[in-house]
């Protein structure tokens, strides 16, 4: 149905990564087919479409990094690479018949709540919609963050972010500067090192790195998982259970992480013989405070003769010379930023205008907050998949996504039960109570142990990570509690006054 030239849909889903495709599958399973999936690119995949850098792979085991309702018995490795994960998402799209709902090259430019009509006005690059419900599944790892380095604009060489890799640029023989030491950088460094003429890594803070117990999944295993799906489910269950048992070390007893630190230091000592280099690669904060990284080839790559480690961040660029905070100067032909993403200031927030005329970004100036990671006060019928405080430090985000899909499904059921035109708006008191509880729990976690990480916003608050088990998150998102919401109905039209002359005539 069209309204003023705009197509109206029951639900508009933003993004076609794991969150958006999962939402689409769940809507169809709930019998809802009047929805569109708005994707700014020309194919599905989200972060696994965008990140194509050399060595790109997942640091969560394959059988846990997939939907429970769409198991993949054919994963080729215990930790899968980007091409296989993207292929899996294409497979999910086809298996569940999602292509008719996809709208590619349809970047959402504006979302505005209409309090009179009780629906969202959705402006995209390829046309406009109105929607009763909007599901924002843009994901936290979608918009790259490049630091504002003085002189960057005048750098004569090549510059790109790890998630926007330029495959047309040949790094062979080039002087390459890698900025950052996060999850992407430790995969890029060993992949680029053999072909670069010189590779310089700018490291503000050394990461904790553990061995990556990766191996090919044998043909016999794949056959077994295909013929007996229960074996794949058992494998997934074991992987899940191990990580659930580790959660208390992150959330309640950070001191227990010392044993894991010893394992990481042993891993470092075996790979790096030079004591001076080893000292520069040794973290001085509790393991887990930043994301723990997995790699078998990162440390060995740093010992190669064509690699330099600068133990300071990049502070300025003068022509082709890169200047570090410690004064070190490095000549470079190319700069690769592995500096992460806009995680604590969700970019979609600048485009979403709520019931009071303010944007979501304005509401969240003091920090992101959403009821059960899904609903923000003043933004009726808007749900997040991977919203504030739903991230994980040691397990699979697919578990969190599936829990939020349960919440979405019950949200739609509640609207149906209410009947007629209705909207649900999270009560500010409920959002505040939920967020206060989270922040109290966060105080004793390893993520608040004193290091600076992408989990913390500009105010030092952790608005990214969930401070509990995935089982607990599933319990608290199983049902929508209507007491936490205001039920909105369309405003009644005022009664029209009857003219006195008409009254006399009636007599």
Automatic annotation (TrEMBL):
Query: Which SUPFAM superfamilies does the entry mention?
Result: FAD/NAD(P)-binding domain
Q: Which UniProt keywords apply?
A: FAD, Flavoprotein, Monooxygenase, Oxidoreductase
Q: Name one Pfam family in it.
A: FMO-like
Give yes or no: UniProt keyword Flavoprotein.
yes
Q: Which Gene3D superfamilies match?
A: FAD/NAD(P)-binding domain
Q: Does the keyword NAD apply?
A: no
Superkingdom: Bacteria
Q: Which GO terms describe its molecular function?
A: monooxygenase activity
**Signal peptide from the UniProt entry:** none
InterPro entries in alphabetical order: FAD-bind_Monooxygenase_sf (IPR051209), FAD/NAD-bd_sf (IPR036188), Flavin_mOase (IPR000960), Flavin_mOase-like (IPR020946)
Q: Which family does it belong to?
A: Belongs to the FAD-binding monooxygenase family.
The protein in question is named: Baeyer-Villiger monooxygenase
Q: Which organism is it from?
A: Streptomyces hiroshimensis
């Amino acid at each position: 149905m069209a309204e003023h030239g705009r197509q109206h849909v029951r639900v508009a889903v933003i993004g076609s990564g794991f969150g958006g495709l999962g939402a689409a599958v769940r809507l169809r399973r709930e019998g809802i087919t009047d929805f569109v999936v708005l994707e700014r690119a020309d194919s599905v995949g989200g972060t696994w479409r965008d990140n194509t850098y050399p060595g790109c792979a997942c640091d969560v085991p394959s059988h846990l990094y997939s939907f429970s309702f769409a198991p993949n018995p054919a994963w080729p490795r215990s930790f899968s690479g980007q091409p296989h994960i993207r292929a899996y998402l294409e497979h999910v799209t086809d298996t569940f018949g999602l292509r008719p709902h996809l709208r590619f090259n349809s970047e959402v430019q504006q979302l505005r709540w209409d309090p009179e009509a009780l629906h969202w006005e959705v402006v995209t690059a390829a046309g406009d919609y109105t929607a009763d419900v909007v599901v924002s599944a843009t994901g936290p790892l979608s918009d790259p963050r490049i630091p504002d380095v003085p002189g960057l604009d005048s750098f004569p060489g090549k510059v790109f972010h790890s998630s926007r890799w330029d495959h047309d640029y040949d790094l062979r023989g080039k002087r390459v500067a890698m900025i950052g030491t996060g999850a992407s950088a430790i995969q890029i460094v060993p992949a680029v090192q053999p072909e670069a003429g010189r590779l310089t890594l700018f490291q503000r803070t050394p990461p904790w790195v553990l061995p990556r117990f990766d191996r090919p999944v044998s043909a016999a295993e794949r056959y077994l998982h295909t013929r007996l799906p229960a074996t794949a489910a058992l494998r997934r269950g074991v992987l899940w259970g191990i990580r659930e048992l580790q959660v208390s070390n992150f959330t309640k007893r950070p001191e227990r992480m010392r044993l894991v630190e010893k394992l990481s230091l042993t891993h470092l000592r075996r790979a790096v013989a030079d004591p001076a280099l080893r000292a520069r690669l040794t973290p001085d904060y509790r393991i887990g405070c930043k994301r723990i990284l997995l790699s078998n080839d990162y440390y060995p790559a740093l010992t190669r003769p064509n690699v330099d480690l600068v133990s300071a961040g990049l502070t300025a660029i003068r022509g082709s010379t890169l200047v570090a905070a410690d004064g070190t100067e490095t000549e470079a032909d190319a700069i690769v930023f592995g500096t992460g993403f806009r995680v604590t200031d969700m970019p979609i927030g600048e485009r979403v205008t709520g019931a009071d005329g303010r944007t979501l970004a304005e509401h969240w100036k003091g920090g992101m907050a959403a009821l059960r990671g899904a609903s923000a006060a003043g933004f009726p019928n808007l749900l997040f998949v991977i919203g504030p405080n739903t991230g994980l430090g040691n397990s699979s985000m697919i578990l969190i996504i599936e829990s939020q899909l349960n919440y979405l499904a019950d949200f739609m059921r509640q609207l149906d039960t209410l009947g007629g035109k209705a909207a649900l708006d999270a009560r500010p008191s409920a959002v505040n109570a939920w967020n206060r509880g989270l922040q109290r729990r966060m105080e004793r976690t390893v993520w608040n142990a004193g290091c600076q990480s992408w989990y913390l916003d500009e105010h030092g608050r952790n608005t990214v990570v969930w401070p509990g088990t995935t089982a607990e998150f599933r319990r608290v998102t199983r049902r929508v509690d209507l007491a936490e919401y205001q039920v909105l109905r369309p405003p009644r039209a005022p009664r029209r006054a009857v003219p006195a002359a008409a009254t006399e005539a009636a007599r």
